[in-house]
Structure formats: C-alpha cells, structure tokens
Amino acid sequence: MDSLSEQALLDELHALIRFLYRPALAAKILTAFGESLAAKSDAGDRLAILRHWLDFYQAHKYRKLMRRRRATDAERMSPCSACGYPVSQRHHLWDIATHGENPVTVQLCPNCHELHHLLYNALARDSAYSRKLVRHMLDSGKVAPATLEAIIGWLRAILAYEAENGWLEPYRLTAEWFAAQIGWPAAQP
Ligand SMILES: [Zn+2]
Ligand SMILES: [Zn+2]
Prior knowledge:
The chain is mostly helical. The protein has 2 domains: 3-66, no CATH class; 73-182, no CATH class. Helices cover 64% and strands 4% of the residues. It has 9 helices and 2 strands. Helix 1 (3-20) runs antiparallel to helix 2 (23-38) and helix 1 (3-20) packs parallel to helix 3 (43-66). The chain is elongated, with a radius of gyration of 24 Å. The relative contact order is 0.08. The site of one zinc ion (ZN) has 8 residues, from helix 6.
C-alpha cells in the first residue's frame, strides 16, 4: 500500500469526523488520532487502523442521518399548513429511510398528518386498510375541501418525484387511480 491511499483514507476520516462533531471536539479527536497514527511505524498497521475507524465513523454517520430531528417549540406551535389548527407536527415529504433527516417537511396537525399518511399508503401502496379509512374520513364530510386539496397537492408532488426517480409506477399518478383508490374528486351528480 502506498502513502497516497493512506492519505486518501485519512482525508475521508477527517471529513467524517468534521461532519459528526462540533469543531472543537473534532479538532481534539483529529489531534489524538494523528498522534496515535504517528506512533505506528508500520504502514500496514496504520492502514488497518484507518480502515477500522472509517467503518466505525461511517456507521455513526449513517445512524445520525437516519435519526429524525426533534421538532422545535416554534415548529410545534406553528399552525397546520392544511387546515390551520394551531399546533402541528413535522411531516417528512422526503422519507427518512430514503433521504435521512432532511428539510423537505411540512407542518401538519395530528388529523391532517394521519390523513396524509393514509392517502399516501392508499395511492403509493396497495393498502386496503388505508383506502377504507380514507373513504370513511372523506365520506364523513368533516374534512374541509380546501384542507383535502392542500394535502392532495403535496401528495401529487411527492408521488411525481418518486415516479420520476423510478421508485413508483407512473399509473399511480393518474386521475383514474386517484378516483379508484380514494374516490377523489367525487363524481359530479
Ligand atoms: Zn390540519
Ligand atoms: Zn409524517
């Protein structure tokens, strides 16, 4: 192994540590790391150590990205973007499993949040359970048309994005599919 690959691994490790920790702590870790590496005279030993810690910090980075950030008080106290109810939750339009914690979120009250997830599962998955609940909610007449319109708008955008990336079959975006799955928009008499 040449010193070039050792430098490349070291650069990667430095970048990971800077991503994971605040500057002061990252500097401490990097100094300690540099000292322990310098103490090893064998290049093979140094590479083995580098690889070990790269694996360790990569797993750490992955866990950090998967962890959802806790909503701030200001976020909790911002009104539902769909219906205006005074408290809300962060809904990730880009799901955490695919994208990690990310800023593509919308604030929804618990009811609208549940409706959004049920609609998504009825349209993007073939969940008969979600379809049944959605229809029950919509048939109740308790969901304001403007609220439903807003939620459907985000859904359309996210379904289109997922279809563009090849994660979703395009037919799931069609009006026919919406009508068949969720009975929306209601047929005119
Ligand atoms: Zn709401
Ligand atoms: Zn959600």
